[in-house]
Amino acid sequence: MAKSALSFVCQTCGAAYNRWQGKCDACGEWNTLAEEDLTGATTMPVSIRSKRKGRLFTLETLAGKTQDAPRLSSGMTELDRVTGGGFVRGSVLLVGGDPGIGKSTLLTQATSLLARAGHRAVYISGEEAVAQVRLRAERLGLADAPVQLAAETSVEDIVATLSEGAVPRLVVIDSIQTMWTDTVESAPGTVTQVRASAQALIRFAKKSGAALILVGHVTKDGQIAGPRVVEHMVDAVLSFEGEGSQQFRILRAVKNRFGPTDEIGVFEMTGLGLREVSNPSELFLSARDLGSPGTAVFAGLEGTRPVLVELQALVAPTALGTPRRAVVGWDSNRLSMVLAVLEAHCGVKLSGHDVYFNVAGGLRISEPAADLAAAAALVSSLTHAQLPTDAVYFGEISLSGAVRPVAQTSARLKEAAKLGFGRAVLPESARGDIGGDAGLTLDTVAGLTTLVADIAARGQGHPAKATDPEKNATPPGFRRQNG
Ligand code: TYD
Ligand code: MG
Fold first, then answer.
1. Percent of the chain's residues with pLDDT above 90
2. What pLDDT was estimated at residue 53?
3. What distance in angstroms lies between residue 71's CA and the mean position of ligand 2's atoms?
4. Ligand 1, atom 13: closest residue by C-alpha
């Protein structure tokens, strides 16, 4: 007896069940199962299966000839940085991002630049009509670029058209959720359709050597909708992020088989499309609020590039039983850890205060090196002590309250000096890493206590360096420690 086709598919992870259930056992998500017709996708009559004999193919050696440069530069430095030096032939890239963030704009610009450089670049829009895409190109001043454009959604038609003539160097599919293939019967946008369409397009890319970019939509909780399954099939996943209200856009590699995943590309959305920002520090520090307590400049590192960014903290007495902790752009567990260390080792009492923490410019920081700058901003806000405006901070805080060294000290110092900062507050143990003259005054701290005492002293109008918190009067919010 033939096995019945499984027909309830989880729209998050793609697991299939033969009856409906509230929770997906595979990924643990609730309410994600939807009915799909899988006949043809998974089942094939036994008679056909057994009759089909496997086709023989030639096995190749590793030392083969590659006709063209394996990487194709997009003409946009920031995009190349994230992909790891350009589009790899036959590779497939998934670009995810919120609606309206600028995915179509970015890819229109990339295809136009390639087309202008004489390559065959194809842009297939499944969402917008040809006229709409043209309108955007006109606005971007790229209407003259010889991009091959179409508004199509049938994967079979697309593959057939692309197989004609010269192999395209770049194909953009905007978006994968709008594509459908005849081989499965589910509606467009369902996991089965998205997976089958992506498979057919990826097969074309691998066979022909064209670089393929798939645009993917993102759900409310930041996942690329439906095609989680697609993430596993592609060579690289890039995520395009930004705050709706701000003009900065950050392109980040989430996965990359051919390059690093810690590089970011920074863009600015202007009236004339996306402008590349080659020095992001200047952008993130451009609207700095000089002279108010609660802000500290962090000398961070994004991939190989040092990036200076302002961290902002607001510490205010709470009216609630459980104080609020709100974080944007940083890990909230990391904030809790820094607060706990401040409380346990430095006598900074924060359990009666709400804490709001923000990374300026919409950047998201994942480096532990931000601990010291975050602690400085928090203590500065609590004590109303303004930090020196020409100082940068970096260093990891350990649970014991010690300040640990971080990687690439000299690169961070060099960037700070370049941007006109005069001093750096950094771990004591980092001194060994600094070769020669750093170009700025170095304030090394061995423990968090030293930093807290320093800032507290500033708040009381004693700019002199204080090393022993016991000798100072207790500022507001501080509790004296015994012993
Ligand atoms: P779009 O690329 O269509 O976003 P996505 O494809 O990710 O949905 O970008 C749409 C937004 O970008 C829209 O709000 C208008 C804005 N925009 C500009 O500000 N300047 C421009 O030159 C263009 C083309 C778009
Ligand atoms: Mg779009």
1. 47
2. 76
3. 26
4. 100
For atom 12 of ligand 1, the residue with the nearest CA is: 102
Residue nearest to atom 25 of ligand 1 (CA): 273
Q: Averaged over 186-206, what is the pLDDT? A: 89
- Look at the pTM and tell me if it is higher than 0.70: yes
- In CATH, 283-459 is 3.30.565.10: no
- Give dist(CA 21, CA 31) in Å, integer: 8
DSSP bridge pairs for 212: 92, 171
Ligand with the closest atom to the CA of 274 = 1
Domain 71-278 top-level CATH class: alpha beta
Chain centroid to CA 206: 26
- What is the per-residue pLDDT across 234-286, written as a single tens digit (0 to 9) for each? 999 999 988 766 788 889 888 898 888 888 899 999 989 999 988 888 777 87
CB 264 within 8 A of CB 250: yes
How do the residues of the chain divide into helix, strand and coil, expressed in percent and rounded to 5?
Answer: 30, 25, 45
Measure 23 CA to ligand 2 centroid, in angstroms. Answer: 32
Q: Peptide bond before 175: cis, by omega within 30 degrees of 0?
A: yes
**Who lines ligand 1 at CB under 6 A?**
97, 99-105, 136, 139-140, 269, 271-273
Nearest CA to ligand 1 atom 8: 100
Q: Determine the atom of ligand 1 nearest the C-alpha atom of 140.
A: 22
Exposed/middle/buried for 108, CB within 10 Å: 0-12, 13-18, 19+?
Answer: buried
Single-letter amino acid code for the residue at 125: S
pLDDT tens string 19-28: 899 998 988 8
Atom of ligand 1 nearest to the CA of 240: 7
- Distance of alpha carbon 135 from alpha carbon 476, whole angstroms: 59
Pocket test for ligand 1, best of 224, 245, 269 (most atoms within 8 A of CB): 269
Query: Each residue of 131-182: pLDDT tens digit?
Result: 999 999 999 999 999 999 999 999 999 999 999 889 999 999 998 989 999 9
Q: What ligand has the least distance to the C-alpha of 139?
A: 1
Distance of CA 141 to the CA centre of its chain: 28
CA-closest candidate to residue 409, choices 374, 377, 436: 436
Residues linked to residue 355 through DSSP beta bridges, in sequence order? 315, 325
Dig out the tokens for 52 from the structure. Answer: 């089909």
Question: Shortest CA distance to 226 belongs to which of 266, 181, 194, 248?
Answer: 194
The closest ligand to the CA of 108 turns out to be: 1
Identify the band that residue 296 occupies on the pLDDT scale cut at 50, 70 and 90: very high
